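Sequence decides. Our protein:
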Amino acid sequence: MRVIVTGAAGFAGYSLTRELLEQGHEVYAILRPNSKHNDRFYNVNGNLHLVELDCVDFDKIADKILCQCDVFYHLAWFGGRDDFEGQNANIDYTIKAIESAAKSGCKRFVGIGSQAEYGVCEGLITEDQMPRPINAYGAAKVAALYLSKRRAEQLGVEWIWGRIFSLYGDLEPAGRMLPDVLDKMKHDEAVSLSSCEQNWDYLHVVDAAKAIAALGKSGHAGEIYNIANGNYAPLMTFIDRAKTELKSKSEVKFGERVNPFISLQPDVSKIKAHTGWSPKICFEDGIVAFVDNKLYYEV
């Protein structure tokens, strides 16, 4: 099977590309021109084609590939949480992507959204909840969802949307909470955090890649799916587990409750029922590999 992946060198995109290659697919990886992240693929084996193309030119993807493909995975997304100009542009890039999917002969389009579409929720988060985003990023994801779904209907392409929650693991960029905490714990440095009372859900990026690939194969057309672990717990619990696993002597201080108070309790029964997917990597194994600078595909 031939597949196309935008954002292929990104945090989730890299693991998805590796997973699709592991499954024996021919992968056309759409990469941002001159990105240092493109080097990640130099030693990757498999039927891989690297295509450097800026997001503004996503309408030219079919012209670059020049062959019929089967599934289009759209992960490329840029800009800060309240970068209104950038987030609005992402909506246009998504429409260009789905139009290129149709031109490339793809029967299916898998778009990747975010838990940010839900906003502030109480209790279990199911896919039928009304989106209430609280920033431009979440709002743009919601807009891209509805507009790409309608465009797919017009073009005769099966459309599926996956909402990613909290990923960690291979190639997670510095500056995010968990990598910074793990680095401090590795060096027995003090850690200062918020109250960490909110429920959180950590899914290893390799498990997420398998989930996204499963949606391309078995997801039901027209459906939205939560991509998460499902074993949520108070965030402080994950911090304590990390400290124990790493045998760290770091002093951890929990402070004030954050505002807005985002508490994640995702329901993953739908994706499990429709695809047979379930997460396999436990939190402790994932963080040890990350701290040791090992990619999970190479462990």
